[in-house]
Amino acid sequence: MSVFSANQLQGFAISVFESIGCSSKDAATAAAVLVSADLRGIDSHGVSRLKGYVGLYDAGRINTKAMPKIVRENKSTFNVDGDGGLGLVVAPFAMQETLKRAETYGSGWCAIQNSNHFGIAGEHAMQASKRKMIGIAMTNATPFVPPTFSKQAMLGTNPMAWAFPSGKKFDLVIDLATAAVARGKLEIAKREGKDIPKGWVVDKDGLPSTDIDVLEKGGLLSPLGSLEELGSHKGYVLAGLVDILTAVLSGANYGPWVPPFVPYLPLLPNLPGSGLGHFLGAMEIDGFRPKEEFIAHIDNWIDAFKSAERINADQEIFVPGEIEYNMEEERKVNGIPVNNKVVQDLEALGKRFGISM
Amino acid sequence: MSVFSANQLQGFAISVFESIGCSSKDAATAAAVLVSADLRGIDSHGVSRLKGYVGLYDAGRINTKAMPKIVRENKSTFNVDGDGGLGLVVAPFAMQETLKRAETYGSGWCAIQNSNHFGIAGEHAMQASKRKMIGIAMTNATPFVPPTFSKQAMLGTNPMAWAFPSGKKFDLVIDLATAAVARGKLEIAKREGKDIPKGWVVDKDGLPSTDIDVLEKGGLLSPLGSLEELGSHKGYVLAGLVDILTAVLSGANYGPWVPPFVPYLPLLPNLPGSGLGHFLGAMEIDGFRPKEEFIAHIDNWIDAFKSAERINADQEIFVPGEIEYNMEEERKVNGIPVNNKVVQDLEALGKRFGISM
After folding, report:
1. Which residue segment(s) compose the domain that A201 sits in?
2. How many domains is chain A built from?
3. Which residues on A lie below 8 Å from B234 (Cβ)?
4. Cβ contact (<8 Å) for B174 and A237?
5. What is the Cα–Cα distance from B284 to B290, expressed in whole angstroms?
6. Residue A113 domain flag
């Protein structure tokens, strides 16, 4: 484990993105989104992914000179073709336009095709809440989750994020993958030698498993809800919702055809769309109720939930976005711990491109 | 168990709503929404609720002469004051305006305050998919779910529905409560003498319970995800999302202050808003991609999921809205079974108002 400042990681990431052909502007945009994940404690979506992005570039599956553009529109709604670029660049471009449409029409909604992995969904949604609007961001992702009653990888961990401005130190950010757990949680359990509960994963026959190595044996992640009797169909349809909004609506690939993040997995034949898909939204608050009134009630909502009766007096109740905000404040001061495996990956990239940390 | 035709139930419901003061038009609207639940197999939200609506009327908590109106707007976004009316009437009024805004601005979004229970969310969302738009409907509801780490009822089963037009016999309708299970499932398990799995409910101390009578002993429903280790915080924040969009955004009551559906439970003091809240949306598809192309890909998505590899060859995989459609087709032909307890309730209402089935 080594500790780096956000600036160090961001500078390094900028150099890596420039080395694979991004403009300085695009490299800075991409690095900022990436390191926001490390700051917020979502280490699986930060600089640990740099190696993967470079791998996709090497495989000819990312266009680092991409010029995303609006290809279709109807007032508050529009479609962006990401030109095969980094989602880390395409999504910020599309979100800027989404915010403009919200200023003009009260709300703005963008479906994005022909893109790639866009980092953490929350970061894009928060571009709206920073401007005192409501923000929405979703993406589809590498198929790793079966629908209820199936053993086939048909859906990704397909996250959705909704960000609401508050008068507190942090915005209220609801950001969740629609699988029961992230892969990262499995990796942590493995490192720490812990057992995993029934409901996180299924084996290659689609049956619930507690084998921590099951993903290497053809197993898959369970949808949110975990087990049929606990409502796994609800996680399945939420992942499906994200798949439809991000890809069926945009013209991207959906279901089993979503291009995998890892470059060594081949694309399926007969792709129904282009790249992977995102869906972004922004709503001005004033059309619903006065903005300051809304924010005062968001604060009241937060206070009510923070002071709800606890199960254990010592275990605080958290509101959405609070844990990530606390982590960010802590890591801004004390730096970002990066595990040895990721440090090695970064060193290898540094060596290849002649960059030092 | 008795069996009635949809027309019988609808005619009876119309007479009941007229008896408590609704206009013929409002009574017909309310009855149609109610019976759509019975037809789709969501018996807990159909005529079994008539007694409850009448109870709320008796308690002075429903205004059957309500005139819902738009009280604030900004192009694609607006706020409706439900005037304390039946959600079954207020939501259809608001959805009509939402669809008009979508026609004008590409999308329409409505937050509704000062309303009451609106039936099944899917029925409102489907008003958009019937017109080849995307429809969204959410509502908050009687507090019955604690946030993770809390033992207090802070959230309802807060459902969300998203409806997408298809070229198949049925639209793709994602309609889920954000609790692990509906109360109705507990009642069915009890009637059938079945055990319930750990994860459906918690006891009065907030701990997972398998006691089928736990709700009568101060227990609560678990959020989707069921247990802390299986991601109950995701169900909590999804229920929170619905609470914020439907109530914090509209000016309705939220969190523990949501007015309970049962008339014998009192309202909390210091209400932060009016009535309960809904959130509705509609999006035209053409701004994203040509409508016919979208529908062709929705059909392809459905075909892909229906033919995904099965765990058991005999267990079909369902897509969202399919089971409810199949039920509706079956019940249109064979009638709607109504259990004896509900029949007694309907008979009592019939006696009181001089209506025969």
Report:
1. 184-221
2. 2
3. 176, 224
4. yes
5. 10
6. yes
Using the Cβ of B162 and the Cβ atoms of chain A, whether some distance falls under 8 Å is answered with yes
Neighbours of A241 (CB within 10 A): 22
Nearest beta carbon to residue B147 from set A146, A234, A317: A317
Q: Quick one: which of B117, B136, B119, B118 has its CA closest to B127?
A: B136
Residue A65 per-residue DSSP state: T
Q: What is the ipTM of this complex?
A: 0.98
Tokens linked to B24: 């013929």
Q: What is the mean pLDDT of residues B94-114?
A: 98
Compute the CA torsion angle B287, B293, B298, B301 (nearest 10 deg).
-120
CB burial of residue B207 (10 Å; 0-12, 13-18, 19+): exposed
What distance in Å separates the CA atoms of residue A195 and residue B99, rounded to the nearest whole number? 50
Out of B75, B229, B315, the one facing A197 most closely (by C-beta) is: B229
For the beta carbon of residue A343, count every other beta carbon within 10 angstroms.
16
pTM: 0.98
* Structural domain includes residue A12: no
Q: What CATH number is associated with residue A325? A: 3.30.1370.60
In a domain, A284, yes or no: yes
| B36-88 pLDDT, tens digit each | 999 999 998 999 999 999 999 999 999 999 999 999 999 999 999 999 999 99
* Chain B residue numbers touching A230 (CB-CB < 8 A): 180, 197, 199-200, 226, 230
Say if residues A236 and B305 touch (Cβ distance below 8 Å).
no
Chain A stretch 92-121, residues whose beta carbon is closer than 8 A to a beta carbon of chain B = 104-107, 109, 111
A128 touches chain B (CB under 8 A): no
